[in-house]
Amino acid sequence: MSKKVLITGVAGLLGSRLADWIIENKPEYKVVGIDDLSGGFEENINPKVDFWQMDLVNHPIENCFEVHKFDYVFHFAAYAAEGLSPFIRTYNYQNNLVATSRIITQCIKHDVKRLVFTSTLAVYGHQDGNMFDEVQVPKPIDPYGVAKYGCEMDIQIAGEQHGLDWCIIRPHNVYGRNQNIWDRYRNVLGIWMYQYINGLPFTIFGDGSQQRAFSSIDDCLLPLWKAGNDARASKQIINIGSWKYYSIKQAADVLKQVIGSGEIKHEQARHEVKDALPAHELSVQLLDYKDTTSLEAGLSDMWQWAQ
After folding, report:
1. DSSP symbol at 30
2. Is pLDDT at 128 greater than 90 in this prediction?
């Protein structure tokens, strides 16, 4: 009997690309996916995935667990609109915290070997110094970060009380093919591509000096898989992604070079962390992460797809 993995958010960037990777590299595993298609797209889903279109908050997800008896669960589904979260508080908490609590319950009930949860760098908030390290106590500054931190804590409590094995991943601005470029609250690289295609300038909030680590999805797939089944990753919180930092202005300039044109328009600065510079050593030690895709190469591939 084949082993089974569940990927929630299977129509999104992380979910669809990890499903493709597992199907290609781990044929002994059957991939089951859940998505409500609110932020992902059905055409992203590999035809070999057993797809359940469900809402994690309202639909009977227990049916999916009863049918399949999963070995591993990768919980990627979330509404990741950090900047919008102060204005959609209830929706934010339902689709992050409540949805995750339901997944945790089913993982406990069905003895899942490990739950992998994608959190966010937003849990760090404002830290002393500009480096985000996994041992720091989170201080989120928006409801999205609060919701994700709440999920992290609930997962860890489930580990202590019920023996649930887990790995919490905090990704660094992951981008690539299958990204939702139509949502103006998601990854800035996709937003800029959408703006360019529609004849608009790239918008930058403030002067563009704020720094981020942009991470190609291609570099993250093997580490995400290892988060699920490598013994080193058991009950670990791990930043994952590039250790090369760019200012927002520099990233826009790289995309302009890739496209061959583009204008920049500065908007009023907004409520956000100035520099999100994550430590990367744990991802290398525990997940064998390798930062091999340059921003230019990753954006060239994504731009080709976006067109």
Report:
1. E
2. no
CA 254 – CA 273 distance, rounded (Å): 22
**pLDDT tens figures, 7-19:** 999 999 999 999 9
Residues 48-89 have pLDDT tens digits of: 999 999 999 999 999 999 999 999 999 999 887 767 777 889
Q: pLDDT tens for residues 223-258? A: 999 999 999 999 999 999 999 999 999 999 999 999
Interacting residues of 98 by C-beta distance below 8 A, sequence separation 6+: 57
Q: In which region does residue 79 sit, left (phi positive, over 0), alpha (psi from -120 to 50) or beta (all else)? A: beta
How far, in Å, CA of 72 to CA of 68, rounded? 11
With CA atoms as reference, report the closest residue to 221 among 23, 56, 80, 8: 23
Measured CA to CA, the distance from residue 60 to residue 209 in angstroms comes to 46
1: pLDDT confidence band, cut at 50, 70 and 90?
low
d(CA 302, CA 307): 9
